[in-house]
From TrEMBL:
Taxonomy, superkingdom: Bacteria
The keyword Nuclease is assigned to this record: yes
InterPro entries with a match to the protein in the record: Restrct_endonuc-II-like, Restrct_endonuc_IV_Mrr
Keywords, in A-Z order: Endonuclease, Hydrolase, Nuclease
GO biological process, alphabetically ordered: DNA restriction-modification system
Recorded GO MF terms: DNA binding; endonuclease activity
Segments forming domain Restriction endonuclease type IV Mrr: 144-250
Keyword Transcription regulation: no
This protein's name: Restriction endonuclease
Amino acid sequence: MANVSFNEKIYFERIFQMENGYVLDFTNRTFQDFILDTINIDIYHRYDYESKAKLLRRVISDFDNVTVGKLLMELLDYKRLHLDISNDEKETFYKCVDIANRLMGKSVRAKLAPVEKHSNNDFDFKRNLEALIKVSKLNNSQERGYTFEKYLYDFFKSNQLSPRESFKLIGEQIDGSFSFKNEIYLLEAKWTKKLVDKGELVKFNEKVSSKSRFTRGFFISFSGYSEEALATFNSGRSVNIVLMTVQELVISLEREIDFNIVLEKKIRALAEEGKFYKNIIELF
């Protein structure tokens, strides 16, 4: 039985919208497939037919901490990727992430908070968050894209990353660059409704690789990345870029996490695990 208290279970009941017997937007078939893929358990073969909410409660009661923690974290990640997290849900969502991390034996973020605070006393998290929200409210896509690039320049400068504004080379446009630990990172910034596809990642990776073996790339997207891109982008090629979403940037600002620490953890995930996109929720 997983070590989840009554009050902790209530958090998951809320975030997974289980009050009417459902779990998020899963059908019986997709719920069965999701659990089988995540923890290798055929839920309808193991248990008699019940509502999805009751089945999830039974898994939490019957299995060990690590198994339950992994399933809960994957469900949270599913919600983050495919469904909305409202402002009212954010606190509950983060509490659930902390609980799932604890079950899997990872450090709870709240305990790490003192060492994850920004080391630059001049950095204003609230002001940067408000400025990013203003960018999101711009209706003209061209103006929004230009303003986002300008925002990132100021953001990198405030984080002491020696940024350069967008520039043109023969046959290509670079959205900007910055320096991190004596390495140069080219910037690609996308604020569009369309998910970034594999072709765009391949193109940017090749742009980065063509400069020198010392050059790296940082890709930040408003809408995120397609599942196909994340699953197959690194197949047969050397990856020199790390990915982030605007949503992750918002999370780092809301929780006052040093961007330099976020960037370092993402780079280490690529270097040590081959993961070019590891979400901030998994990093902290």
